[in-house]
Amino acid sequence: MKKVFLTITAFILAVSVFGQEVKTDTIPDGWTYVANTAINISQTSFSNWSLGGEGSVGGIAVLNLGANYKQDRHTWDNSFVGQYGIQKIDGESSKKSIDMFDLNSKYGYQIAPKWSLAGLLGVKSQFANGYNYLDNGERSKISSFFAPGYVTTSVGFDYKPNTWFSALLSPLTGKYTFVADDELSDAGAFGVDPGDKFMAELGAMINAKMQKDIMKNVNLASTLTLFSAYTNNFGNIDVSWDVVLGMKVNKYISATISTSLLYDDDIDYINEKGVNEGPKVQFKEVIGVGFSYNFME
Q1: What's the alpha-carbon Rg for the chain, to the nearest Å?
Q2: Which of 67, 154, 169, 180 has the largest count of CB atoms under 10 Å?
Q3: Domains of the chain by range and CATH?
Q4: pLDDT tens per residue, range 7-50
Q5: Looking at the DSSP assignment, which residues form a beta bridge with residue 254?
Q6: Which residues, 6+ apart, have CB-to-CB distance to 178 below 8 Å?
C-alpha cells in the first residue's frame, strides 16, 4: 500500500555572540570597548502540505563594534554596525534580505552640565549589489557598494540630560551622496545629475539617540536623524529612524525586533512592474528568535 507522508518542518536557529563593555588593566584610562555579533539561520520546508507554501532558507549576520572615550570634559564615541542577510526560496535564486553598514564618530567638549560642543562624522552604505525583481522574472540593479554612499559631517551642540539619551543639534551639516556605480550614475539615481557620481548638500540636522532598559531583560534602542538642506527645497525633511528592541529570555534564548524607516525625496521607488512612483516612505522589519550565548561571561 502506498503511504502518504505529510511533513512540515519549521526550524529557526539563531546563534548569537553578545559582547559587553571591556575594561582591563591593559586598556588606556578613559576607554571602553563593545563587541557584539550575531548569526541567525532560518529554514522552512514542506512535503505534501495541502495548505500550500514554499520552502526557504536564510541567514543574517550582524556585527556591532564600539570604542568610546571619556576623560574630564572630553568624549569621543565611535561605532560600527554591519548587517548582511540572504534568503533562498525553492525554485528561485538567492536574494539578499538585508544589507547595510553604518560607521559613526562623534567628538564632544563639555561646556555646561548637559551640553557639549560636538562634531560628527558618519559613513553609511551597503556591501553588495541590490536588485528590483520584476513580475516578468527579470531583475534590474538599483544599488551597489557606495551607490548610494552617504557621508555626513556635522558641527553643533550635543544635549545629554542623562545616561540613556542624547540629541545633537547641528545648524551646519554637510550631507554628501556618492553613486560610485557607472550604470546608476548614468541613470541619475539617488538625486545626482545623470553622469555625476557626487552630490553635496548643506543643511541642518537633528540626531537623537536613546538606549534604555525599559524592563528587566528588555532593552530599547532608537536613533532618529532629521535633515533638511538649505540649498534644495528647504523644509523638505529627510528621515532615518532605526529602532531595536532586544529581549533576553534567559542565558541561552533571546529575541530581537528591529525596524527601519527612511524617507528621502531624492530617492524614487520603482515598483514590481518597473514603474517609477517617485519618493515614498521606506520601511523594513526584522524579527529574530533563537539561542544565544555570551562568551564573555
Answers
A1: 22
A2: 154
A3: 70-80+98-287 (2.40.160)
A4: 333 333 333 444 444 444 556 778 888 877 777 777 776 665 65
A5: 248, 290
A6: 125, 146, 147, 148, 149, 150, 151, 197, 198
89 grid coordinates = 526560496
pTM: 0.80
CA distance 184 to 188: 6
d(CA 277, CA 270): 6
Q: How many CA atoms lie within 13 A of 280 on its CB side?
A: 9
Question: Cα separation of 76 and 82, whole Å?
Answer: 20
Q: Which residues contact 163 (CB under 8 A, 6 or more apart)?
A: none
Q: Label residues 55-67 b or e (16+ Cβ within 10 Å = b).
A: bebbbbebbbbbb
Pairing of strands 7-17, 282-293: parallel
CB atoms within 10 A of CB 196: 13
Q: Quick: pLDDT tens for 224-233.
A: 999 999 987 7
Instruction: Work out the number of other CB atoms within 10 angstroms of the CB of residue 154.
Output: 26
